[in-house]
Each structure stands twice: as structure tokens, then as C-alpha cells.
């Protein structure tokens, strides 16, 4: 789209999406320094009737057996420690009781120094974090420095707030490393944005929190931190029906994120049972 | 999992026929919606040397119906002075469930049995108000019943011996429960033959 613009290519099709993008690209200088959220609406069509929030609510609650229930059936966690931030997630996607997939990638690699996690509606998380990636890149180009985690999470929170009450479902954690050090923010669909050292989101978070709270020390080594994150996800996968399958662990360092591992939680469960740290 | 009463606790059971043998298997999860509380809750109950019933559904009703049925079968054996047969067992179950037609128990049942003299096999599938199927080759009940049915139909062959039957039942159950979040956490398989009943625990996914 930008390339087409540079080359002077004009599409004949009136309804072609590239035209819409062309308008945005032409107005790119008019972007406010903070954020021009209005442009996002050009890419997303709201339903073509009055009061979309009321209708969308019907689809989210049980009316005449139509129900799209976004239950945050997952376990994601992230915590800051001496050597950065560890992010660990499971990989199960459930639709009601049905396990729709056991290989979902719940860590979204926004750019080489920012990660986002996915909980709630997969489409919502994937889409908005990709929009966030775009805004982060534009910031980087204009300001010749990487965006801070605080700013990135604020951009996302503000975008989500525009759609508050319309049925977005997201419980995401934005993780990065900027000039203030490691950064961790939790952003959710009700517009909440908070920063802390330890977060866990999803139906399995209650089990993950127990393990994290029991073993967390800010000064722990990287190996211990990875082990703690792994155990937390494995225990949550065991107890929570909506979490499980594969555990993925990432380490956010000063030089950017590194993927540590991607292994089956079941193998760890039997291993921990042999070590007598798990009982079943 | 929503507010569906039959998936509140979860669980699944499968029964398959072979040549002069039957297998019945169930998972071992006891949970409350998303929370798994125990992994030793088997849903198969023995009523006679060669008669077994599996109950799936609301856990409290699994316990209550199995115990009430045991009460009736005990009295039957005392009064009649003879051992229970599978056909009698499923008739007693039908009546027990239909007595509560307008306030039913939330359990679906599988009745399996074998006649030790003739080797005739019985597998029956009951809904929660006592509608019993004919004597079938394969039956499943529970939250993962559809997934296991597909696999069961795939692995079933007529006149399997007890080893093949065990393999077919185990594979159908283990792989079926991996697609259901409310079942699993281990499994147990009973293979009933004319002279013995073999109970085996399966190593399944614990998530």
C-alpha cells in the first residue's frame, strides 16, 4: 500500500481497501504526536446499524441460543526479575468444552524488543497487537529511538478503551526492555493498564500465582526464573481444564527477547511426579 | 464450559464388544467446571462377577445412582438367590431412572456384561431417563462421547480377542479425551472375559 503510493499506482476499484490506506498515508503528517485513533476506524467497519454495542452484546450473552462466550481459558504469566522479564504461556484454545487447538501461539512477537501475550479473544489480541506493532514502528521512524514499554502499553490501552463495552475480550501483558530497564504492563479489555513485578492472566492464573508467589525472588538467577515460570504453567495446566498442551517460555533481555523453549507440559508433569514435586 | 449441567463435572466412558469379551473404560477426572479437584474418580461400578455399569454426568448423581442401583441389586440377589444377569441389570436401571422421569438424575449410563457359560456379550447405552439402546457393539457417554465415538468406530473390528479389544478401547479413549477439556487425567479399562476380569490403568495426559 505504501509502496503502491510511492510508485504512483492508483487502483480503479472504488471499494479497494488500498484506497483507504492511501488516504491515511497521505495524511500521515497530520498524525498527532500521541495517537490518532480515528484512523483505525477506517480499517475496521462497525456494523451498519445504529447502536452497535447493543447488538454485539446480544451475541456475547445467551439470547435465543446465540452465544459467543469469551472465557479467558488460558494461563499466561510474566514476571520481572534481576535479569529481565520471563514470559511463559500455555497453548490450549477451548471453545466451550472442546479443545479447538493445542498449539496456539499465545505470545505475540510485536517486534524484536516487545512481546505481548494473548488471553481472551485470539482475534482481538492478534489484531490489536499488530496495530500496536505498526504504531511502534512509526514512532521509531519519527523519533529515531525505540518506543518505551510504558508508551506502547498506553497506546494499546487507549485503542482498547475506544471499544469499551462493545465486547472486545483481551487480557494481555506487554513486556519489553527500554531505557528504564525491564518493563511489564497488564492491559485488559476494560481499559485497565497497570504495572507490577508479577502478573498472570487467564483461568489458570490462580494456580500459576500460587507457584509464583511461593518461589519468587527478584534476585533469582535466570535458570531459576525459567524453572519457576515453567513449573507455574505446568501446575496450572494440570489443575485447569482450559490450559495445557505446550508450554512456551521467552526471556526478555536488554538485547531483545529470546525464545527459551517450547515443550509438552505432560512430559514435565510426569517428570515432576518422579521428583515428588507433583502429586497425581 | 457454560452452564450445562452434564458438563459441570465432566467425564467420559466407553464400552466395546469383542469375541466373548467386553471392555469398559472411563477417565478418572473429578472436577468442578474448569477446576480439577481429583484424579482418582472412576465411574465404573461392578454389580456382579461379569456385570459392570459406567455412569457419566453430574458427579453427585453418579454416586447416588450407583449406590441406589447397588441397593436394588443386593436385594435381588438375596431374594432370588441367584446372580445378576446383564439384561436384568439394565432393566433395573431403566426403572430406577424412569421413576424420576419429571425430576431426573443427570447421569447417562453404559451397562456391559458377559454370560460366562455361553460367552454372549452385552453392551447397552442408557440416557438419563432410562431409554436403553439395543445390544450394540460400541457405546460412549460423557462430555467427550462424540470424539471417542469417532475413534471407536475407526478402531472397532468384529470378533476381536481381548488384547486387540484392550488396545482399541484404550486408544479410542485416550485420544478422544485429549480433545475435551473436561475429561482425562488418567483412565482405567476393565476387560471382562469368561474366566477373568482384568483391570488396567492407562497412562494419559494429565492436563
UniProtKB/TrEMBL annotation, chain A:
Q: Which Gene Ontology cellular component terms are annotated?
A: cytoplasm; nucleus; proteasome core complex
Q: Which reaction does this chain catalyze?
A: Cleavage of peptide bonds with very broad specificity
Fetch the PROSITE patterns from UniProt: PROTEASOME_BETA_1, PROTEASOME_BETA_2
Swiss-Prot/TrEMBL GO biological process terms: proteolysis involved in protein catabolic process
| Record carries keyword rRNA-binding | no
This chain's function reads:
Component of the proteasome, a multicatalytic proteinase complex which is characterized by its ability to cleave peptides with Arg, Phe, Tyr, Leu, and Glu adjacent to the leaving group at neutral or slightly basic pH. The proteasome has an ATP-dependent proteolytic activity.
Query: Hey, which family's this protein in?
Result: Belongs to the peptidase T1B family.
Q: What is this protein called?
A: Proteasome subunit beta
Origin organism is Adineta ricciae (Rotifer)
TrEMBL record, chain B:
Entry's localization field? Cytoplasm; Nucleus
Tell me the InterPro entries matching this sequence.
Answer: Ntn_hydrolases_N, Proteasome_beta_3, Proteasome_bsu_CS, Proteasome_sua/b, Proteasome_suB-type
GO CC term (a single one) = cytoplasm
Where is this protein chiefly located? cytoplasm
Q: Which domain of life is it from?
A: Eukaryota
Keywords from the named record: Cytoplasm, Nucleus, Proteasome
Q: Give one Pfam family.
A: Proteasome
Gene3D superfamilies (UniProt xref): Glutamine Phosphoribosylpyrophosphate, subunit 1, domain 1 (3.60.20.10)
Would you kindly state one Gene Ontology biological process term found in this protein's UniProt entry?
proteasome-mediated ubiquitin-dependent protein catabolic process
* Family classification: Belongs to the peptidase T1B family.
What function does the entry list?
Component of the proteasome, a multicatalytic proteinase complex which is characterized by its ability to cleave peptides with Arg, Phe, Tyr, Leu, and Glu adjacent to the leaving group at neutral or slightly basic pH. The proteasome has an ATP-dependent proteolytic activity.
Under PANTHER family, the record lists: METALLOPROTEASE TLDD (PTHR32194), PROTEASOME SUBUNIT BETA TYPE-3 (PTHR32194:SF10)
Whom does it interact with, and what assembly results? Component of the proteasome complex.
List the protein's name. Answer: Proteasome subunit beta
Amino acid at each position: 500500500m505504501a509502496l503502491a503510493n510511492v510508485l504512483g499506482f492508483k487502483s480503479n476499484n472504488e471499494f479497494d481497501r488500498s484506497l483507504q490506506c492511501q488516504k491515511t498515508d497521505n495524511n500521515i503528517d497530520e498524525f498527532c504526536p500521541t495517537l490518532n485513533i480515528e484512523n483505525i476506524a477506517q480499517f475496521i467497519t462497525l456494523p451498519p446499524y445504529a447502536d452497535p454495542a447493543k447488538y454485539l452484546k446480544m451475541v456475547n450473552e445467551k439470547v435465543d441460543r446465540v452465544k459467543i462466550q469469551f472465557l479467558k481459558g488460558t494461563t499466561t504469566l510474566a514476571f520481572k526479575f534481576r535479569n529481565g522479564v520471563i514470559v511463559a504461556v500455555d497453548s490450549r484454545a477451548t471453545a466451550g468444552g472442546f479443545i479447538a487447538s493445542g498449539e496456539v501461539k499465545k505470545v505475540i512477537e510485536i517486534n524484536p524488543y516487545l512481546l505481548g501475550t494473548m488471553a481472551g479473544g485470539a482475534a482481538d489480541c492478534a489484531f490489536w497487537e499488530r496495530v500496536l506493532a505498526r504504531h511502534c514502528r512509526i514512532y521509531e521512524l519519527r523519533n529515531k529511538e525505540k518506543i518505551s514499554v510504558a508508551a506502547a502499553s498506553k497506546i494499546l490501552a487507549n485503542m482498547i478503551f475506544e471499544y469499551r463495552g462493545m465486547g472486545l475480550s483481551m487480557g494481555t501483558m506487554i513486556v519489553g526492555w527500554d531505557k528504564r530497564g525491564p518493563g511489564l504492563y497488564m492491559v485488559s479489555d476494560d481499559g485497565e493498564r497497570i504495572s507490577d513485578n508479577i502478573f498472570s492472566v487467564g483461568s489458570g492464573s490462580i494456580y500459576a500465582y500460587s507457584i509464583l508467589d511461593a518461589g519468587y525472588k527478584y534476585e533469582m538467577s535466570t535458570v531459576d526464573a525459567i524453572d519457576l515460570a515453567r513449573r507455574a504453567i505446568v501446575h496450572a495446566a494440570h489443575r485447569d481444564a482450559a490450559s495445557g498442551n505446550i508450554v512456551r517460555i521467552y526471556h526478555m533481555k536488554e538485547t531483545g527477547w529470546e525464545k527459551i523453549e517450547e515443550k509438552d507440559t505432560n512430559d514435565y508433569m510426569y517428570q515432576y511426579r518422579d521428583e515428588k514435586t507433583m502429586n497425581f | 464450559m457454560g452452564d450445562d449441567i452434564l458438563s459441570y463435572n465432566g467425564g467420559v466412558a466407553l464400552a466395546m464388544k469383542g469375541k466373548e469379551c467386553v471392555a469398559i473404560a472411563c477417565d478418572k477426572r473429578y472436577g468442578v467446571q474448569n477446576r480439577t479437584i481429583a484424579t482418582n474418580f472412576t465411574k465404573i461400578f461392578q454389580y456382579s462377577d461379569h456385570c459392570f455399569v459406567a455412569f457419566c454426568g453430574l458427579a453427585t448423581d453418579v454416586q447416588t445412582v450407583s449406590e441406589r442401583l447397588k441397593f436394588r441389586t443386593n436385594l435381588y440377589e438375596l431374594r432370588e438367590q441367584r446372580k445378576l444377569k446383564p439384561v436384568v441389570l439394565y432393566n433395573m436401571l431403566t426403572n430406577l431412572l424412569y421413576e424420576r422421569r419429571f425430576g431426573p438424575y443427570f447421569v447417562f449410563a453404559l451397562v456391559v456384561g458377559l454370560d460366562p457359560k455361553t460367552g454372549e456379550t452385552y453392551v447397552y447405552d442408557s440416557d438419563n431417563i432410562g431409554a436403553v439402546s439395543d445390544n450394540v457393539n460400541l457405546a460412549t457417554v460423557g462430555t467427550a462421547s462424540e470424539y471417542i465415538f469417532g475413534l471407536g468406530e475407526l478402531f472397532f473390528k468384529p470378533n476381536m480377542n481381548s488384547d486387540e479389544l484392550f488396545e482399541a478401547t484404550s486408544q479410542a479413549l485416550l485420544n478422544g479425551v485429549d480433545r475435551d477439556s473436561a475429561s482425562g487425567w488418567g483412565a482405567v479399562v476393565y476387560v471382562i472375559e469368561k474366566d477373568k476380569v482384568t483391570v488396567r490403568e492407562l497412562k494419559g495426559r494429565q492436563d
